[in-house]
Write a structure and sequence with these properties.
heterodimer; A: 317 residues; alpha/beta; Rossmann fold; 2 domains; 35% helix; B: 237 residues
Chain lengths: 317, 237
């Protein structure tokens, strides 16, 4: 449904987005993941026509953002980062304003209002002034405004930033519900958020796409080596180092002493399993093996490897 | 057209949900009323030329004040991103906002009609045509100053800076024909024609010349056009 072709954006000498291409299909929930300043918001702004690409294009159906900006804007619902709203308006007035621009008036508006109020659980605040609503409600008002024309495509820029955990769960559930019938493209720099909400993840770093797939695909695709942690007592460091000679496929990454015990961090090629050999070696050496743990890679590791940085959501973009 | 009307209604609603419009209308009426009345009963003339001299001065500060936030506030709050990603042309945004500011000015101007009633009550041999063309002139002058102030508002996200830029440009238009003395004679004709006061004074005398109307319409069109270009330019920054 959305086809991004070699999209680039330069701000002066800074290349914010560097020739990215991907396509998104109907009914997908896609997470656009990247560290602060990676180019997520710039890309979303280009898709929604807020800024124009320096080169490349965005196609939705047979329209493109350079020649048919207004037509594309009719098809898309957009929740910008930080969710700016007209605070002086009442909630229903704000939604009416959005509907009116999209030529939804009269009975059509009444029906659309009922639908988004129900979907976004705004029943309690419809007649309240936007500025007096809580942050969670404001986020839902922004979502309701983006959905008032029942768009096939929803673009949400950091939709849960600044919300408390309960509000995050609510918005996440809403996005999942919407994703059943719409294409939802949401950006976030919070890994857990993306992992919990989306079907597919696109990771962007320094303006380039560095990964694209489901979280399972990304994790399995990156597992060249399996990590293994051992805790051994009744051993000495030299005899542990000698283990390499008997098991050539095992690479000892780190040995540290903790009290009487040694913590050993090993890695070996995925697809091989030297754990029995390690156990037998320990028996031969009269070591006491108190722990043997395989460490699975998670999305955080993938993100760290791909971007060289990690963001646990403590900071807002 | 529908989008222009939607933006227009939103802006007018925004004016009247804050104290801004009410303060403007009351203070505008009081200031004009005070300066009109202290002179009108002294000069013993049955016309509104006194008013037509005062209102442009009051406009100088009031119009940039009410228009300063029309675009700059959207920029500072970030709502410009909301409005710019809706299916609406920048031209329609500018016209809708302009009309809202202009209507507020017209409402303020309408309040000064009370002085016309005073004139009807105490005056003799009133030149109603001159009053009519004078009011048309003031409305058009308000239109020019609103267009200029809207342009100033599009240049920045800071309302105070927009206000200062607005006053500076409006003052320039107002002062042009008062500075003719310092101009080389080859330029004085052009500068005089660009001055708002030159065209307004014609209309206050009861002359409705198409050149004056074309001047006002051109200046309004020019400033609305460059304001639209400025809004569009965000795409290419």
């Amino acid at each position: 449904m959305i086809q991004i072709d070699n999209l680039s954006k330069n701000y002066g000498d800074v290349q914010a987005v560097d020739s990215i291409s991907f396509s998104l299909g109907d009914g997908e929930i896609v997470g656009f993941l990247g560290a602060n300043g990676a180019g997520k918001s710039t890309t979303l702004k280009m898709i929604t026509g807020y800024i124009s690409p320096t080169s490349g294009n965005v196609h939705i159906g047979d329209k493109n953002i350079i020649d048919d900006c207004i037509e594309i804007q009719k098809m898309v619902g957009y929740l910008p980062e930080l969710n700016p709203l007209y605070a002086e308006m009442k909630v229903h007035e704000y939604l009416k304003f959005h509907a009116s621009i999209r030529e939804i008036t009269g009975n059509k508006f009444t029906d659309a209002l009922k639908k988004v109020v129900k979907e976004c659980s705004l029943q309690g605040v419809v007649h309240r002034t936007v500025g007096n609503c809580s942050k969670g409600y404001k986020q839902r008002i922004g979502l309701a405004a983006a959905m008032i024309h029942d768009p096939k495509i929803l673009i949400l820029d950091e939709p849960v930033t600044g919300l408390d955990p309960n509000q995050i769960v609510e918005i996440r559930a809403l996005i999942k519900k919407l994703g059943k019938e719409k294409l939802v493209l949401m950006s976030s720099h919070i890994l857990q958020e993306i992992q919990a909400t989306v079907d597919r993840i696109i990771i962007i770093d320094e303006g380039k796409i560095v990964a694209d797939g489901t979280s399972e695909e990304l994790i399995s695709g990156s597992q060249g080596m399996t990590q293994l942690n051992l805790e051994i007592s009744n051993a000495d460091e030299n005899s542990i180092q000698d283990m390499k000679a008997t098991m050539p496929g095992v690479n000892i990454k780190d040995i540290s002493k903790k009290g009487e015990n040694f913590n050993v961090h090993l890695e070996y090629a995925s697809g091989t399993d030297p754990r029995k050999d390690i156990f037998n070696h320990a028996v031969e050496q009269s070591w006491i093996l108190t722990e043997m743990t395989v460490t699975e890679k998670n999305l955080e590791d993938i993100f760290r490897n791909l971007t060289g940085k990690i963001d646990n959501g403590a900071t807002d973009e | 057209m529908n989008n222009i009307l939607t933006i227009f209604k939103k802006e007018l609603h925004s004016f009247f949900t804050s104290p801004m419009a009410y303060i403007f209308l009351v203070v505008f009426a009081l200031i004009n009323g005070y300066f009109f009345n202290i002179q009108f009963f002294l000069i013993n003339e049955s016309d509104l030329r006194v008013l037509f001299g005062i209102v442009p001065l009051v406009y100088l500060f009031f119009i940039p004040a009410i228009s300063m936030g029309l675009i700059s506030r959207e920029k500072s709050l970030g709502t410009i991103e909301i409005i710019s990603t809706m299916p609406i042309l920048e031209r329609d945004i500018v016209i809708g906002k302009y009309l809202a500011g202009f209507v507020l000015i017209i409402l303020g101007l309408a309040a000064t009609l009370i002085h016309y009633l005073t004139l009807l009550y105490v005056g003799t041999s009133i030149d109603h045509g001159a009053v009519f063309t004078g009011y048309i002139g003031l409305a058009l002058l308000g239109g020019v100053y609103t267009a200029v102030s809207l342009f100033a508002s599009s240049l920045t996200d800071n309302q105070v800076i927009a206000f200062i830029i607005g006053i500076a440009i409006v003052l320039l238009f107002f002062m042009m024909d008062k500075l003719l003395f310092f101009m080389p004679s080859s330029m004085s004709g052009v500068v005089q024609f660009l001055s708002t006061d030159f065209h307004l004074s014609n209309m206050a005398r009861g002359v409705l010349d198409t050149r004056n109307l074309i001047y006002f319409a051109s200046v309004i069109g020019f400033f609305l056009s460059i304001t639209t270009r400025i809004l569009e330019s965000r795409k290419w920054n």
